[in-house]
Amino acid sequence: MDRNNGKIGLWSYRAGTIPAILLVTILFILPMALVFGSAIREGTLINSLEDASTYRILLFTVEEAFVSALVSTVAAIPFAAFFSRYRFPGRKAILALSGLSFTMPAILVVLGFVIWYGNNGYLNTLLEGIIGCKPLRILYSFPAIILAHAYLNFPIAFLIITSAWSGRPETEELAAYTLGKGRLWTFLHVTLPAIRGSAASSFALIFLYCFSSFAIVLVLGGQPRYYTLEAEIYRRVYIDADIPSAAAISIIALAATAIMLLIMPEGRREKRTSRKKRELKEAHGGSLIAAFFLVILILLFLLPPMVAIVYRSFHEKGGAFTTEHWVKGLNAGYGAMLSSFIIAFLSSYLSTSAASAIALYSAHSRSRLLPFFTTLPLAAGSVTIGLGLLIASSYIGSLIPLSADWIRYILLLAAHVMITLPFSVRTITPRAQAIPEVLRDSAYTLGMSSIRTIMKVEKPLLRSGRMKAFCFSFALSLGEVNATMMISLGRLTTLPALIYDLIGRYDYQSASALGTILLLEALIVFIIAEIGDKDGIS
Description:
Number of strands: 2
CATH superfamily: MetI-like
Shape: globular
Oligomer: single chain
Structural class: mainly alpha
CATH class: Mainly Alpha
CATH architecture: Orthogonal Bundle
Number of helices: 24
Distance between the termini: 24 Å
CATH topology: MetI-like fold
Helix content: over 70%
Largest sheet: 2 strands, parallel
Number of domains: 1
Low-confidence stretches: 1-8, 265-275
């Protein structure tokens, strides 16, 4: 390949990343600078660092995130061990059901847990009717937070570890057996070290998710002593009306999560010793019984809360069938659904387009700096992003002659772009890195310009990755509630924010009707993503 053509090509990739860099700079860096400025004003940050309650909240946030990640990861290992070894009826269906967790809004977990595990929920009703036991007091406690986080994140750990485990050949285990080592010794000294990277990766990822937990903590924790940093930020803004103090907490949360974000990639550097995957064995006899038992356990854990939402949407508390709450919910939620769809579509399109340019540049230049730069919003958390844009709204209002509602709408769209961009980058980048360099060189040899090579050769090969990123971003935006509640001030309502409001008013039937719609949308988006997720390179 001509060296000059290669240099021109690299500049073309760099030019393509300019819009993405501007997006992150304007929509994230500048608002975060406003947060920092608000935090250091009048010594607020110093005061927060000297306040014992700050460290109590920080320690609890670390504790609940650590326990949630540990429970989710450890619980996933035995299931991953079996699913990566045996083939049996229902295996693919369970893996698909677990994959649905990537598009599952947290607000649905909150609603499902309230309806299923509540003091007067369906689980207690069943237990009292069958065995006459006293109601289980699960909600509004630390175990409720951990259980909800495990519900949301166990499938993530299960899929990551199963994928890594299935991708390993059994040669090392077979060698250990040949040397006379037992199954337990082989598992502890050979298998576990081999999957340590994927387990660490899933642990770090789940820790990061749970560290920024918001809706689950507010509703299922139910008490200020169970508040995480993000929940405390929200409380200080809307209860104490103390934005500088909330900004100080945001800076502390950003510093803590940035450390985790730097650690996360370490668990992903797991290299296979062979490209040959292990052959799955057909389950029969005892292994088939074990498969049936494990499948039932997963279904009993994952399905009841979501089924309870659908059932409650059509039934009164006493069990009578009705569609009244569907009518009520749809009438109240029409505008919220429209806003959610518009924001989800626009934010997903923008984040996917920006991520594609970033992925191609990083693959071509072999630089990890830009992907890290665009992942910074993930470290901040959606509540902190919302706070930064909320502070920015006062400056925007004085510069742009728009109504307050339009400004909130634009800022809400900006928040969703920043929330979805890191996930789009992480989805598309591996696909870009998998494009053979020989294809690009061949295009240059045939006289194609660098721009034409990008548009006609590389972007078509990213189509499946872009589709998956768009669908995942769409689902993530559709279920986002944290930044929405920070920015909207209750005046611009999306579907998840409306469901949260209905839960707070104990209108579970209307919340369930809208929750069923949100669940159906998540399911449709997941199916589209799975259908479109085909490798662009054979």
